[in-house]
Amino acid sequence: MLQALIFDVDGTLADTERVHLEAFNHAFTEEGMDWHWDEARYRDLLEISGGKERMLHFWNERYPELRELDHGAVRTRIERLHEIKTAYYESAVLEGRVSLRPGVLALIEEALGAGLQLAIATTTSPVNIAALLRAAMGPDWRTHFAAVGDASSAPVKKPNPQVYLQVLRELDMPAGRCLAFEDSRNGLLAARAAGLQTVITPTAFSGHHVFDGALRVLPDLDGVTVADLRAWHAGQAVAA
Predict the structure, then answer these.
(1) Would you identify the CATH topology of the domain 4-15+99-233?
(2) The whole model's pTM is what?
(3) Which end of the chain is more exposed for a tag (fewer CB within 10 A), N or C?
């Protein structure tokens, strides 16, 4: 029986990646760097989970001669870039430039009314989660989620299942009673490795991914009901 829904954040709850990209480029400019990621480059970099990890990967591509001796200074620079980027992103969310994807809020509200538990399993930072959900659901957003796993509590990024395993422990619930919601292949791999059936809602940045093993691949959650989820989870067809 379905008892809990576990949501990824970036790309799943909200289509955030264009604003994240804008925030990265803002940080590069603020720090006087000649870096600029276009959408095609960023789409490739999204194969790497985590903003700091993406920047480090790009740095190593640009400067392959980097010595181990220099890594401390590089990581300090990346921390600074990430702070600037996060502040820019939070400001954009508070200005109303990021909103939940179609159907998300209605499904969350119906799930709460039906007695399902809600959780978050993401590799993004706590401040990004709070900015988005505070704007979308109000200041008491956290009370609606029985468990929240993020980059601070589960530092090993997707496709590693660490964050999902942590959330399942916090829920004290087996994977077979839960459904995960993701938008990317890395997210799907992480959820499936934790034993979770997974509903995928790709974005323009992840639509080219291969989603073998997903329970459903949908354009978004608009019109999706708890009854649909229960039927899919149980392996039943929804009556026309």
Answers:
(1) Rossmann fold (3.40.50)
(2) 0.90
(3) C
